[in-house]
Specification:
The protein has about 325 residues and is an alpha/beta fold. The chain contains 14 helices and 11 strands.
Length: about 325
């Protein structure tokens, strides 16, 4: 992988999540990539409107490849925004854990990393004892709980796992059982629906909430800032998310973009990524730090049996109605 093997411009542009992810890419991934290949890498941080930027580009996308959630990938795939992956350029895809590889229903994205959600709490204010999501409705708990409020998926999947009437989150995919999810959520000690991470941390620091449902890796990173003693606990059965990378339709650096995905899946790169940020890595060959292994399922069998990875395609037709119902549900608190 020396120089611009795929032709196109001399700079490869990748869009990843803002915040910690973009910092890791700029400070760790970019130097490793440029030293190994001689290529220039431009890293862009985005949380919102990734798909809109590609749609509005008129076939000349603002980046060559981008991170995407299962939902982003599905919606982009419906609009033909991604180039099909040519796996001959990504031999390291053979190392991806099968549970992650099966997360997409298309051949246009490759898993690179994943995370799980758990309890994040103010460790200076409480002695946290819960071990599952169902404990929120079966145990006598004295707490003020914060849940994600901007979109239904994370909260409703958690509610489905806690309902425990069907395996894992299957209540979500059955019209006749969705009422059970909202009934379960009503039994939880909810005091706030937060909008973004800072809203969650502010509510904790001000004593408005004690516990929040949040991403393990981001909670761990926040704890490392030292301004709040954050405890983190991931239930054995929980929801997860996969960071896929896909090549934007119309990229002039298609081959170099695919080779960059292959680079991201190298053992040394995956291990360096894991060291900087407590995500699980897609490659079976990656080494994870102890803090990650303590809370994040690493082996494929653990992922397959205990982690619900979001499958947007299964709720796509009813997503708008579900989100409206979730928005209305929030007015009860």
């Amino acid at each position: 992988m020396a120089g611009c093997l795929g032709g196109g411009s001399g700079t490869l542009t990748v869009s990843t999540w803002s915040g910690t992810n973009v910092e890791v890419f700029r400070n760790t991934i970019k130097p490793m990539y440029e030293e190994q290949t001689g290529n220039d890498l431009k890293v862009v941080g985005n949380w919102n409107n990734i798909l809109g930027k590609i749609r509005q580009s008129g076939g000349d996308p603002p980046f060559d490849l981008t991170v995407g959630s299962n939902r982003d990938h599905y919606l982009g795939d419906q609009d033909d925004l991604w180039e099909p992956i040519r796996y001959d350029n990504i031999p390291n895809a053979d190392t991806v854990k099968s549970t992650l590889d099966n997360n997409l229903e298309s051949d246009r994205g490759v898993p690179v990393a994943y995370g799980v959600m758990g309890y994040a709490y103010n460790a200076d204010e409480m002695d946290f004892q819960l071990s599952s999501w169902r404990d929120l409705v079966t145990q006598d708990v004295d707490m003020n709980l914060a849940l994600p409020g901007s979109y239904f998926f994370n909260t409703v999947i958690m509610g489905a796992i806690a309902t425990d009437e069907a395996p894992m989150e299957q209540e979500l995919y059955s019209d006749s059982q969705r009422d059970l999810i909202f009934e379960t959520l009503r039994e939880m000690p909810i005091s706030k629906f937060y909008e973004g991470a800072q809203d969650l941390w502010t509510s904790m620091s001000q004593g408005v909430t004690d516990v929040g449902q949040y991403f393990y890796a981001y909670s761990r990173k926040r704890d490392q800032t030292g301004d709040m003693n954050i405890g983190i606990q991931v239930p054995d059965r929980t929801m997860g998310y996969v960071d896929h990378y896909q090549v934007a339709r119309g990229s002039s650096n298609r081959q170099s973009a695919e080779e960059f995905i292959n680079f991201l899946l190298q053992e040394d790169v995956q291990t360096a990524y894991a060291e900087e940020f407590n995500l699980g890595m897609a490659s079976k060959e990656a080494t994870h730090p102890e803090a990650t292994r303590a809370e994040v399922p690493i082996e494929n069998a653990e992922l397959e049996g205990n982690t619900v990875f979001k499958q947007y395609s299964q709720v796509a037709e009813s997503a708008s109605n579900l989100n409206d119902r979730f928005t209305e549900f929030q007015t009860e608190f």
